[in-house]
Design goal:
Blueprint lengths: L1 H14 L3 H7 L6 E5 L2 E4 H9 L3 H4 L3 H24 L6 H27 L2 H14 L5 E9 L2 H12 L4 H8 L10 E5 L6 H9 L10 E3 L2 E11 L6 H26 L23
Antiparallel strand pairs: 1-2, 3-4, 3-6, 5-6
Helix pairs in contact: 1-5, 2-3, 3-5, 6-11, 7-11
Length: about 280
């Protein structure tokens, strides 16, 4: 089943697997894993096959998939040889597709290398320092809540708490919210993580206290208990590394494309519609 699934998933994608992917995945040594009519199949080619598969297969260990991938690559090579023997190397459709692939690979390789210059380790650290300056850490609250459908039920819960009832047990019994089975525990959250009335009430309370009046939101009526508060902390570089790389990458692409377009002679016969222009309505006869 795995072999059939992988073959179906990769039959087309491997033909057009990007050399960039193969280069990134190539091992230090590139052993020959098979030969077909004297033609070698290298490990780097098989790794490129895996890189062209759906995400769930890319994440599996290469050694686990290698026998199936090599077998699939043998089939692919046989198809290629048969097509070449049939004269498809000179076929106009094949040439057009190869030309299109060449344009894409050249563009992707150029872009990848330009991005690599902009997303260096020094640039990432500099971006992180800017992030720390412009993103002040926010205080957080650890709270529980009991969600009720109406104000009367919420007031009844407060009365039970006043009589010494356990908040978590009441939440398990009475709360209509998804956190009810967990004793209403919401964990730590920032003010922006909750709707405004709930956040304002929770952040105004002292640890160990519960709301003396029900708090209404669009979800219903809440009784809130604040467990503890803590000052916000800045994330480490590793925690936001992907975000920093993403920001640098987007900027690098925007700057590069803008620069190239500024210096190019472009004639666009299919321009984007002006803002506010609506497409013409279709008429029905």
């Amino acid at each position: 089943m795995l072999r059939r699934t992988l073959f179906a998933a990769s039959l087309a994608s491997v033909i057009f697997a990007s050399p960039v992917m193969a280069q990134d995945a190539a091992p230090a040594e590139d052993p020959v894993l098979a030969t077909v009519n004297g033609e070698e199949i290298l490990e780097s080619e098989v790794r490129a096959t895996q890189a062209g598969l759906p995400q769930q297969y890319q994440q599996l260990p290469f050694e686990m998939l290698k026998p199936t991938l090599v077998d699939r690559e043998i089939n692919q090579r046989l198809l290629m040889i048969a097509g070449r023997d049939a004269g498809l190397a000179d076929d106009e459709e094949v040439k057009a597709r190869v030309d299109a692939l060449e344009r894409r690979v050249i563009a992707e390789t150029f872009l990848d290398r330009e991005i690599a210059k902009s997303a260096s380790e020094d640039a990432i650290k500099e971006q992180y320092e800017e992030f720390l300056k412009t993103n002040e850490p926010e205080p957080q609250v650890h709270a529980r809540h009991i969600l009720l459908e109406n104000e009367e039920d919420a007031k009844a819960i407060i009365a039970e708490l006043d009589d010494g009832a356990d908040f978590a047990e009441l939440a398990k019994e009475k709360s209509t919210g998804p956190s009810g089975p967990n004793g209403g525990d919401l964990g730590f959250f920032g003010s922006a993580d909750m709707v405004a009335p709930f956040a304002e009430a929770a952040f105004a309370m002292e640890p160990g206290t519960y709301s003396k009046e029900p708090v209404q939101t669009q979800f219903g009526w809440h009784v809130i208990m604040v467990e503890e508060k803590k000052e916000g902390t800045q994330p480490s570089l590793e925690e936001v590394r992907q975000q920093m790389v993403g920001e640098l990458t987007r900027k690098a692409i925007d700057d590069l494309v803008e620069s190239l377009r500024a210096d190019a002679d472009i004639v666009n016969n299919a321009p984007m519609p002006a803002e506010g222009d609506a497409p013409a309505e279709e008429t029905k006869e």
